Amino acid sequence: MKIGRLNHVGVAVPDIEAAKATYAGLYGADEATQTKDFPHLGVRVAFVHLANSEIELLEPLGDDSPVHKFLERNPRGGQHHLCFEVPDIVAARDAMVAKGATVLGTGEPYIGAHGVPVIFIHPKNSHGQLIELMQEPA
Ligand SMILES: CC[C@@H](C(=O)O)C(=O)SCCNC(=O)CCNC(=O)[C@H](O)C(C)(C)COP(=O)(O)OP(=O)(O)OC[C@H]1O[C@@H](n2cnc3c(N)ncnc32)[C@H](O)[C@@H]1OP(=O)(O)O
Ligand SMILES: [Co+2]
Prior knowledge:
CATH architecture: Roll
CATH topology: 2,3-Dihydroxybiphenyl 1,2-Dioxygenase, domain 1
Strand content: 25-35%
Number of domains: 1
Low-confidence stretches: none
Distance between the termini: 19 Å
Helix content: 10-25%
Bound molecules: ligand LP2KCY5N, cobalt (II) ion
CATH class: Alpha Beta
Largest sheet: 8 strands, mixed
Strand order of the largest sheet: 2-3-4-1-5-8-7-6
Structural class: alpha+beta
Order of helices and strands: EHEEEHEHEEE
Protein backbone atom coordinates (compact mmCIF):
# COMPACT_ATOMS: atom_id res chain seq x y z
CA MET A 1 0.00 0.00 0.00
CA LYS A 2 1.32 3.43 -0.99
CA ILE A 3 -0.51 6.65 -0.17
CA GLY A 4 -1.49 8.86 -3.09
CA ARG A 5 -2.48 12.50 -3.47
CA LEU A 6 -2.87 14.78 -0.44
CA ASN A 7 -6.64 15.29 -0.62
CA HIS A 8 -6.99 17.77 2.24
CA VAL A 9 -5.51 19.22 5.39
CA GLY A 10 -8.02 19.19 8.25
CA VAL A 11 -8.00 22.35 10.34
CA ALA A 12 -10.14 22.62 13.48
CA VAL A 13 -11.55 26.08 14.14
CA PRO A 14 -14.00 27.58 16.63
CA ASP A 15 -15.88 29.49 13.88
CA ILE A 16 -15.91 28.22 10.28
CA GLU A 17 -17.35 31.38 8.74
CA ALA A 18 -14.64 33.51 10.40
CA ALA A 19 -11.98 31.07 9.13
CA LYS A 20 -13.37 31.18 5.57
CA ALA A 21 -13.23 34.98 5.71
CA THR A 22 -9.59 34.84 6.86
CA TYR A 23 -8.48 32.48 4.06
CA ALA A 24 -10.30 34.68 1.53
CA GLY A 25 -9.28 38.09 2.90
CA LEU A 26 -5.70 37.38 4.01
CA TYR A 27 -4.64 34.77 1.44
CA GLY A 28 -7.03 35.32 -1.47
CA ALA A 29 -8.34 31.74 -1.18
CA ASP A 30 -11.90 32.82 -1.85
CA GLU A 31 -13.34 29.61 -3.32
CA ALA A 32 -15.02 27.68 -0.54
CA THR A 33 -17.96 25.32 -0.27
CA GLN A 34 -21.12 26.01 1.68
CA THR A 35 -20.78 24.96 5.31
CA LYS A 36 -22.49 21.61 5.91
CA ASP A 37 -23.37 19.73 9.09
CA PHE A 38 -22.50 16.04 9.49
CA PRO A 39 -24.24 15.28 12.81
CA HIS A 40 -23.39 11.56 12.69
CA LEU A 41 -19.67 12.51 12.43
CA GLY A 42 -19.93 15.27 15.04
CA VAL A 43 -18.59 18.00 12.78
CA ARG A 44 -19.60 21.01 10.69
CA VAL A 45 -17.41 21.21 7.55
CA ALA A 46 -16.45 23.57 4.73
CA PHE A 47 -13.71 23.13 2.15
CA VAL A 48 -11.46 25.95 0.94
CA HIS A 49 -10.30 25.06 -2.58
CA LEU A 50 -6.61 25.48 -3.42
CA ALA A 51 -4.78 24.86 -6.70
CA ASN A 52 -3.39 21.52 -5.58
CA SER A 53 -5.46 20.47 -2.56
CA GLU A 54 -8.10 21.62 -0.08
CA ILE A 55 -8.30 22.88 3.47
CA GLU A 56 -11.06 21.12 5.41
CA LEU A 57 -12.35 23.50 8.06
CA LEU A 58 -13.88 21.60 10.99
CA GLU A 59 -16.07 22.96 13.75
CA PRO A 60 -17.33 20.67 16.53
CA LEU A 61 -21.00 19.73 16.72
CA GLY A 62 -21.52 18.97 20.40
CA ASP A 63 -19.31 17.83 23.27
CA ASP A 64 -18.93 14.31 21.81
CA SER A 65 -17.36 15.67 18.63
CA PRO A 66 -13.92 14.23 17.75
CA VAL A 67 -12.66 17.82 17.49
CA HIS A 68 -14.17 19.04 20.81
CA LYS A 69 -11.21 18.10 23.06
CA PHE A 70 -8.74 19.23 20.38
CA LEU A 71 -10.27 22.72 20.44
CA GLU A 72 -10.27 22.76 24.23
CA ARG A 73 -6.51 22.21 24.05
CA ASN A 74 -6.12 24.60 21.08
CA PRO A 75 -8.87 27.21 21.55
CA ARG A 76 -7.82 29.34 18.57
CA GLY A 77 -7.84 26.26 16.34
CA GLY A 78 -5.05 24.38 14.60
CA GLN A 79 -4.00 21.75 12.10
CA HIS A 80 -5.92 18.56 12.98
CA HIS A 81 -5.24 15.86 10.35
CA LEU A 82 -3.81 15.08 6.92
CA CYS A 83 -5.88 13.13 4.42
CA PHE A 84 -4.29 11.01 1.69
CA GLU A 85 -6.11 9.22 -1.11
CA VAL A 86 -5.74 5.46 -1.54
CA PRO A 87 -7.04 3.35 -4.44
CA ASP A 88 -8.75 0.73 -2.24
CA ILE A 89 -9.78 1.67 1.30
CA VAL A 90 -10.37 -1.91 2.47
CA ALA A 91 -6.96 -3.01 1.18
CA ALA A 92 -5.44 0.07 2.87
CA ARG A 93 -7.20 -0.74 6.16
CA ASP A 94 -5.99 -4.34 6.00
CA ALA A 95 -2.44 -3.16 5.27
CA MET A 96 -2.56 -0.79 8.26
CA VAL A 97 -3.75 -3.59 10.57
CA ALA A 98 -1.13 -6.01 9.19
CA LYS A 99 1.59 -3.40 9.93
CA GLY A 100 0.35 -3.02 13.51
CA ALA A 101 -1.16 0.46 13.15
CA THR A 102 -4.28 1.40 15.13
CA VAL A 103 -7.29 2.06 12.92
CA LEU A 104 -9.59 4.27 14.99
CA GLY A 105 -13.25 3.63 15.76
CA THR A 106 -14.69 0.26 14.79
CA GLY A 107 -11.95 -0.24 12.20
CA GLU A 108 -14.57 -0.33 9.46
CA PRO A 109 -14.40 2.36 6.73
CA TYR A 110 -17.27 4.86 6.85
CA ILE A 111 -18.55 7.54 4.49
CA GLY A 112 -16.83 10.91 4.95
CA ALA A 113 -17.55 14.42 3.71
CA HIS A 114 -16.65 13.58 0.07
CA GLY A 115 -19.16 10.71 -0.05
CA VAL A 116 -16.42 8.06 -0.18
CA PRO A 117 -15.21 5.74 2.61
CA VAL A 118 -12.50 6.87 5.02
CA ILE A 119 -10.52 5.52 7.97
CA PHE A 120 -8.37 7.28 10.57
CA ILE A 121 -4.98 6.09 11.87
CA HIS A 122 -4.03 6.96 15.47
CA PRO A 123 -1.49 9.80 15.84
CA LYS A 124 0.80 7.52 17.88
CA ASN A 125 1.59 5.62 14.64
CA SER A 126 2.72 8.72 12.69
CA HIS A 127 4.87 10.87 14.97
CA GLY A 128 1.90 12.65 16.52
CA GLN A 129 0.06 13.23 13.24
CA LEU A 130 -3.56 12.06 12.88
CA ILE A 131 -3.90 10.53 9.39
CA GLU A 132 -7.09 10.08 7.37
CA LEU A 133 -7.06 7.66 4.44
CA MET A 134 -9.77 8.18 1.84
CA GLN A 135 -10.86 6.08 -1.09
CA GLU A 136 -9.94 7.92 -4.31
CA PRO A 137 -13.07 9.61 -5.70
CA ALA A 138 -14.23 7.95 -8.96
C1 LIG B 1 -15.87 15.28 7.83
C2 LIG B 1 -15.56 13.84 7.85
C3 LIG B 1 -14.12 13.49 7.70
C4 LIG B 1 -13.69 13.75 6.27
O1 LIG B 1 -14.43 13.26 5.39
O2 LIG B 1 -12.69 14.39 5.98
C5 LIG B 1 -13.24 14.14 8.71
O3 LIG B 1 -12.18 14.59 8.51
S1 LIG B 1 -13.87 14.09 10.33
C6 LIG B 1 -12.54 14.74 11.31
C7 LIG B 1 -12.82 14.49 12.72
N1 LIG B 1 -12.87 13.08 12.98
C8 LIG B 1 -11.85 12.41 13.53
O4 LIG B 1 -10.83 12.98 13.90
C9 LIG B 1 -12.06 10.92 13.74
C10 LIG B 1 -10.86 10.24 14.33
N2 LIG B 1 -10.45 10.86 15.57
C11 LIG B 1 -10.50 10.21 16.77
O5 LIG B 1 -10.87 9.05 16.84
C12 LIG B 1 -10.14 11.00 17.98
O6 LIG B 1 -10.28 12.37 17.75
C13 LIG B 1 -8.67 10.73 18.45
C14 LIG B 1 -7.63 11.11 17.40
C15 LIG B 1 -8.50 9.25 18.85
C16 LIG B 1 -8.44 11.57 19.67
O7 LIG B 1 -9.44 11.25 20.57
P1 LIG B 1 -9.82 12.26 21.72
O8 LIG B 1 -10.75 11.56 22.67
O9 LIG B 1 -10.26 13.55 21.15
O10 LIG B 1 -8.40 12.45 22.28
P2 LIG B 1 -7.76 12.72 23.63
O11 LIG B 1 -8.01 14.12 24.00
O12 LIG B 1 -8.12 11.68 24.64
O13 LIG B 1 -6.29 12.55 23.17
C17 LIG B 1 -5.65 11.30 23.04
C18 LIG B 1 -4.24 11.56 22.52
O14 LIG B 1 -4.32 11.88 21.12
C19 LIG B 1 -3.77 13.17 20.89
N3 LIG B 1 -4.54 13.79 19.83
C20 LIG B 1 -5.86 14.03 19.82
N4 LIG B 1 -6.25 14.57 18.68
C21 LIG B 1 -5.11 14.70 17.92
C22 LIG B 1 -4.85 15.21 16.62
N5 LIG B 1 -5.83 15.70 15.85
N6 LIG B 1 -3.59 15.18 16.15
C23 LIG B 1 -2.57 14.69 16.92
N7 LIG B 1 -2.76 14.17 18.18
C24 LIG B 1 -4.02 14.21 18.65
C25 LIG B 1 -3.89 13.87 22.20
O15 LIG B 1 -2.97 14.93 22.29
C26 LIG B 1 -3.59 12.77 23.18
O16 LIG B 1 -2.21 12.54 23.22
P3 LIG B 1 -1.48 12.08 24.57
O17 LIG B 1 -1.78 13.15 25.59
O18 LIG B 1 -0.04 11.98 24.21
O19 LIG B 1 -2.10 10.76 24.94
CO1 LIG C 1 -10.88 15.02 6.84
